[in-house]
Amino acid sequence: MARQVIYTFKGQTKTIAFSYDIHHDLYEAAAEAEGIDLTRFLAMEQQIALTSKKGAKAEKEFRKTEFARFGFTSIKFVREDDEI
User: Fold this and answer.
1) Which InterPro entries match (predicted)?
2) Helix (H), strand (E) at residue 62
3) How many whole angstroms separate alpha carbon 43 and alpha carbon 54?
């Protein structure tokens, strides 16, 4: 079964197909679906990864905060038992 991502962007819930061959993670897939350029975001995320401790939650918090700023309130994989 193909993977699917369900996300809420500016109050609208949408479902898209997902493949690791095309996207690094579900956040990048959702951003691409909405036409958001992540070039600067990814550069900053890489800088945070280089300066924070391994296992620190700085990267995760940065991603969560920035995607909320973009307009996303929820991004997750659709489980097989979930109904769309």
Assistant:
1) DUF2960
2) helix 58-70
3) 18
First to last CA, the chain: 15
Cα 83 from Cα 40, distance rounded (Å): 35
Tell the residue number behind the tokens 């109050």, with chain if given: 11
pLDDT tens track, the chain, 84 positions: 578 999 999 999 999 999 999 999 999 999 999 999 999 999 999 999 899 887 678 888 999 999 999 999 999 999 876 555
| CA triple 26-17-62, angle to 5 deg | 15
Query: Does the reported pTM lie above 0.90?
Result: no
Closest CA to 2 of 78, 81, 82: 78
Place of tokens 């401790």: 53
